[in-house]
Amino acid sequence: MYLHGTSKINANGHLEIGGKDVTDLAKEFGTPLYIVDEALVRQRASEYVEAFKASGLKFQVAYASKAFSVMAMCAIAEQEGLSLDVVSDGELFTALQAGFPVERIHFHGNNKTPDEINMALDAGIGCFVVDNFDELALLNALAGDKGKKVNILLRITPGVEAHTHDYISTGQQDSKFGFDLGNGAAKQAIEEALKLDNLVILGVHSHIGSQIFEVEGFRMAVDKVAQFAVSIREELNLTFKVINLGGGFGIRYVEGDTPLPVSEYVGAITDAIKTNFANADFPLPEIWVEPGRSMVGDAGTTLYTVGTSKNIPGVRKYLAVDGGMTDNPRPALYQSRYEAILANRANESAEETVSIAGKCCESGDMLIWDLELPKAESGDLLAVFCTGAYNYAMASNYNRIRRPAVVFVKDGEADLVVKRESLDNIVCNDVIPARLQKSPLAK
Ligand SMILES: Cc1ncc(COP(=O)(O)O)c(C=O)c1O
Ligand SMILES: N[C@H](CCC[C@H](N)C(=O)O)C(=O)O
């Protein structure tokens, strides 16, 4: 059993995280419950910051809030000195409501709406990461309407294919994101932006994909971006102040996953920058990164209550829990794999192989196939590890199932940071039009 961060098995044979027995958390907050090990989140944040400090380069570590955007997480990012990457008005609003410093917010997205852009302009955020030609024109016009000049990075696709799932690989040419380096669109975008009065080009951005275990892709991306920086300086007399290398640093979900320590990813990037610019007669660019998954992923655990089971002799045994694809769609979307234990019987040996099913009306609603467990009974607690990133963030209300609560645990304290949705939350935006109210079905 691999235990992350402060997780351990206590004298009662129960899983404990942040000094809290999870059986107590289940009693206090109910299940399903997302539990976040705050100390581990802070440790990851400081690993990034310290690795950059050691490089001697100027930097920003922007937490990619899409991985887990809630106000309490923005507060932690702020305290740890991170910047923040947002991709929608909702993520921006979350950051602003949490009081996150606007100058450290970067706005991403391949289809920012005029309303979203105006909201970010009014807030005065630090930087827009511009994704395409339409956005260049729109942003310039909207900034002009407000008499503002805005900092931009241009997102480029460097032509690097990260070895990861197709849906989470973004640096290749055939991608919906960014200006292509290979076909000249990236240079054309810089030329275009230089003509636009209200945009200030800070530099470029590249993100090659997610859940990446090697440094090779990052090195290749740095090489390509650095060559581009040098050629743009020569040809257009523009010096990039910032190079943003995105996120994508992998984490250990299951045995066999081999992420590198944060310091190695950062070291590979900063070394490659130094090598590429060794002969440059201009200041080294500031390096920004945008880790999402690796900031919060392994700090999250989802706690479920076991309900029904179905044994099909000679085929398999299904064990159903009180959540599923609504709180974790990743197995259904990406065939993602997770490890789990019976949290209230964590010292007991495995006796059977079961597959963990969710409670949605969907055959694909499976969380884990072929998991070795003690003989589980209804009422036991199942803890699924490494659910901190892209779980709460990607949760849905399919089947009108309510999103779970989120608690942060640290030093024996548990703080509720997101309330469990209520049944009232489920219908609060529903409207029965007057003409339907006449129907006998709708009283
Ligand atoms: C532009 C950009 N930056 C950062 C991230 C964060 O990636 P990860 O969570 O793999 O670190 C993503 C993907 O989610 C992204 O698209
Ligand atoms: N935005 C990221 C991928 C996010 C993947 C995430 N949703 C997951 O669950 O793994 C990217 O384009 O590289």
TrEMBL record:
Amino-acid positions noted as binding pyridoxal 5'-phosphate in the UniProt annotation, renumbered to this chain: G248, E290, P291, G292, R293, Y390
Gene3D superfamilies per record: Alanine racemase (3.20.20.10), Lyase, Ornithine Decarboxylase, Chain A, domain 1 (2.40.37.10)
Pfam families: Orn_Arg_deC_N
Pathways per UniProt: Amino-acid biosynthesis; L-lysine biosynthesis via DAP pathway; L-lysine from DL-2,6-diaminopimelate: step 1/1
Active-site residues, Swiss-Prot/TrEMBL: C361
The EC number(s) this enzyme carries: 4.1.1.20
Reactions catalysed according to its record: meso-2,6-diaminopimelate + H(+) = L-lysine + CO2
Cofactors demanded by this protein: pyridoxal 5'-phosphate
Residues holding substrate: R293, R330, Y334, E362, Y390
InterPro entries per the UniProt record, alphabetical: Ala_racemase/Decarboxylase_C (IPR009006), DAP_deCOOHase_LysA (IPR002986), De-COase2_N (IPR022644), Orn/DAP/Arg_de-COase (IPR000183), PLP-binding_barrel (IPR029066)
Gene Ontology biological process terms, A to Z: lysine biosynthetic process via diaminopimelate
CDD domains linked: PLPDE_III_DapDC (cd06828)
Residue intervals of the Orn/DAP/Arg decarboxylase 2 N-terminal domain: 41-296
Keywords: Amino-acid biosynthesis, Decarboxylase, Lyase, Lysine biosynthesis, Pyridoxal phosphate
GO MF, one example: pyridoxal phosphate binding
Location of N6-(pyridoxal phosphate)lysine modifications: K66
Enzyme class: lyase
Subunit-structure text: Homodimer.
Purpose of the protein: Specifically catalyzes the decarboxylation of meso-diaminopimelate (meso-DAP) to L-lysine.
Similarity annotation: Belongs to the Orn/Lys/Arg decarboxylase class-II family. LysA subfamily.
Identification of the protein by name: Diaminopimelate decarboxylase
The gene coding this protein: lysA
